Amino acid sequence: MADLPASPDRDPQYFDRVLAAGVLSPGIARVGEIAREYTWDLKQAPGAAGENMTFKGLKNVVFSMEFLLLGNAQLQEWESWVSLWDFDPTKSQPRPINILHPLLYERQVSIVAPKKIWAPKQSRPGDNLWVAKIEAVEWRPPPKANVARSPTSASAGSSTDAPKDTARQQEIRRLTQQFKDA
């Protein structure tokens, strides 16, 4: 486990804010559960009890953040801060955002993309406390394509490995030639 850069007991202020694209979030931030999920291929072991496990990779971490905003000033800060999360949905790739929070740091999550952004809502009618929420997903560049390919057919110079014509293809070829000759 990575050492946290801050302790909730010693440095609670670092747990109350999120740094996204170099800008601190307004209000008080609460980061939800963060789980790193591993993908496994489980197969029955031949002739034995139990399973063979093959590691298949990591899934991107999905997590949510809730922000408690007090008053109009923090609501205005929120509108400015949440605009950092906007991206052009016509693009195939999101614009990733650098993010820093001690709990995300612990799970080695540092670049994310927005998944859902909720508008702020009042905690209770008549209150001046607003709650906003963002769901984000860890961003990692797509894996490089494997360019090494297995040969799919024999080389052009080899006639022994060439596929044989079916009887139907031979008949079509013969009739086509007859039509051309006529």
Describe, in plain words, how this protein is organized in 3D:
It is a single chain. The protein has 182 residues and is an alpha+beta fold. Helix content is 20%, strand content 32%. The chain has 4 helices and 9 strands, in the order H-E-E-E-E-E-E-H-E-H-E-E-H. It has helices at 12-15, 71-82, 102-106, 167-181; strands at residues 19-20, 23-24, 28-31, 38-44, 51-58, 62-70, 97-100, 111-122, 129-138. The strands form 2 sheets. The protein has a 7-stranded antiparallel beta sheet. A hairpin with a 6-residue loop joins strand 8 (111-122) and strand 9 (129-138). The longest helix has 15 residues, at 167-181. It starts with 11 loop residues before the first helix and ends with a helix.
Order of helices and strands: HEEEEEEHEHEEH
Report the sheet with the most strands, covering strand number, pairing sense and barrel closure.
Answer: 7 strands, antiparallel
Low-confidence stretches: none
Spatial shape: elongated
Provide mean pLDDT, rounded: 83
Q: Which CATH-level-2 architecture of one domain?
A: Beta Barrel
Number of helices: 4
Terminal CA distance reads 83 Å
Strand order of the largest sheet: 2-1-7-8-9-6-3
The number of E-state strands comes to: 9
What fold name goes in the CATH topology slot of one domain?
Answer: Elongation Factor Tu (Ef-tu), domain 3
Rg measurement, Å:
29 Å
Helix content: 10-25%
CATH class division of one domain: Mainly Beta
Kindly name the structural category: alpha+beta
- Strand % is 25-35%
